[in-house]
Specification:
This is Rhodanese-like domain-containing protein. The protein is an alpha/beta fold. The chain has three helices and five strands.
Length: about 110
């Protein structure tokens, strides 16, 4: 997929009520994630791609944007309409976007 342009959006510009796909590892997810996000770790994405809708934009996030860029490129390659969230969950948190944690503590980005 070298040479493919990956569509990107700033965390502040992600619309509410979209399909948000978080491709981080389970420990990262538990530490803090967007309340409406769907969690499919990057390593499971090809096996679970049928859980990703077609015909609607899919916004993809990881910790800082690298894994989500790879996921976005692959999803677009297989016919999904994917957009990478620049800066990942670090930018999401810095922008003050909603987050929840499953570790019983304050949300943070590991």
């Amino acid at each position: 997929m070298d040479g493919m342009t990956v569509p990107e959006i700033e965390a502040t510009a992600v619309p509410d009520d979209v399909f948000l796909l978080d491709v981080r590892e389970p420990d990262e997810w538990q530490a803090g994630h967007a309340p409406t996000a769907v969690h499919i770790p990057l390593g499971m994405l090809q096996q679970r791609v049928n859980e990703v809708p077609t015909g609607v934009p899919v916004y993809v996030v990881c910790r800082v944007g690298g894994r989500s860029a790879s996921a976005t490129a692959w999803l677009n390659h297989v016919g999904r309409e994917a957009v990478n969230i620049e800066g990942g969950m670090q930018s999401w948190e810095a922008a003050g976007r909603p987050m929840v944690a499953e570790n019983g503590g304050r949300p943070f980005v590991a």
